[in-house]
What does this fold into?
Amino acid sequence: MNKGTSLTIVMVTGLVAACGGDGDTPAILACADLTTAKLGIANLQVASAVEVAASGPLPAHCKVNGALNSRIGIDGKPYAIGFELRTPLPTAWNGKFFFQGGGGTNGLIVPATGNLLNAPAGTALERGYAVVSTDGGHNTGQSDVSFGIDPQARSDYGYNAVGQVTMVAKKIVHARYGQLPARSYLLGCSNGGRDAMVASSRFAHQFDGYVATNPGFNLPKAAIAQQWDTQQFMSAATAGQLPKDAFPATALHLVAQSVLAKCDALDGVADGMVNDRVACQGAFSIASDVPTCSGAPDAGCLTAAQKTALQNVFGGARDSANRSLYASWPLDPGVSGQNWRFWKLDAGFAPLPFNTLIGAGAMGYVFSTPPDAPDLADGGLGYQLGFSMDTAAAKISATTATYKESALEFMTPPNPTQLTTLKARGKLIVVHGTADPVFSPNDTIAWYDALKAADASASNYARLFLVPGMNHCGGGPATDRFDMLAALEDWVEKGTAPDAVRAAVNAADPDVVAAAWPARRSRPLCAYPKQAMLKTGVTDTEDAASFECR
It folds into this structure.
């Protein structure tokens, strides 16, 4: 445990006691009275506290905007941990707290309505939760990652904002309702999924449950993979082309169809989905199962250069000594998804803000120590093409006298396979699409396998669900509509562990439309390592009830 972790835990524990953990009950404050002076919380500035009338599906509620720990950074810029807290009317509160995980490099406060991720509809606020969100400690917007020059801003973004905002938000909830939440949950996808996994390690005493979807819990390593991918894609480009130009949509469609031709029926039914991921990875080969062009590239073949580039991408980033720098990636029909193409081929060297999550921006400013501060005028393409897998990649684990925490320390969960506090009091659901182009599902699978190896009872408090075909947080040819908050509530509050969760298609998704799937298609998502298999003698292949997890 590093120094930052221990300090945060002491502060959080102390504030829980101050919030009423010792039986003290403050006067219940009206929304307008949730001010800096009346709350009396150290280092808190409340900018506004206003009643919001019911509108559309959102109920009437109190909205508090504020900031914690205002300061000037080493770069001379102002910093604070901004947040928004929305609390239903006292008569409508369900007694629970919801932390809405962030996204990308944060930098702005997303309305704290309680994004339920892949749920078909609704928000946590609509379900009666008190909901909080944060900007991660900098309000620079998602297109400015220069906050990475300031070491405290790095730590706030990595973990401290979650811990600080949680304890202050709970104190405000206590002042609003006269009691602490009976249950507390954190849900997020991508960087928000990383928030959930970090919190399950650092702040497990603050929450009862977490949903981490497509989590970037090894985000600095995934950023290295983005630089690697750009270099590989560029190796297949011809003069004047960008990396994305070397792989038109027809090329990725060909790969997806080739995967289906080899793997679709391995799970017992030919339905445009690959459930038997392990068997598919053993059966499918880019080299032998995708036609090779004898001349110019066309829609029915890949050139040798394209094949080599894809093999290197899916094999994972490596240094010059062939040592792995990040996980490999499963080949999945979801590579034809629009979301896959955007993140893997466009976002890494697109105009801001899209290159800031795992491209040159975040890699150079936030994850490199000391910061590289790359020139992003070209979308970061030049920086990525010149990125050294030997020297530059090593900067994610480096420290200096100024930057005392490396990127791996402030971004990743400490001891992710030793979740003793979580085991004692909470539950963690991790969800990952098998065609995620940003964070490798193989990395998440490796983490869960290691957790199980370290603790044979891990499935009693942590479970992993893989979503065949799903891209980053959603999209792709997949059944990507499912309600994991409901599954988490049942596990925490009723003791019903999720063995399978029903998932349906988003019939309006272009990838589902292109695959010509019926709008009623549903499947069970199975707790890893089980997978959905068609029941014997069943003929309806569009209903989740026709499948079982085994």
Residues 3-181 form one domain. The two ends are 38 Å apart (CA to CA). Confidence is low (pLDDT under 50) at residues 1-25.
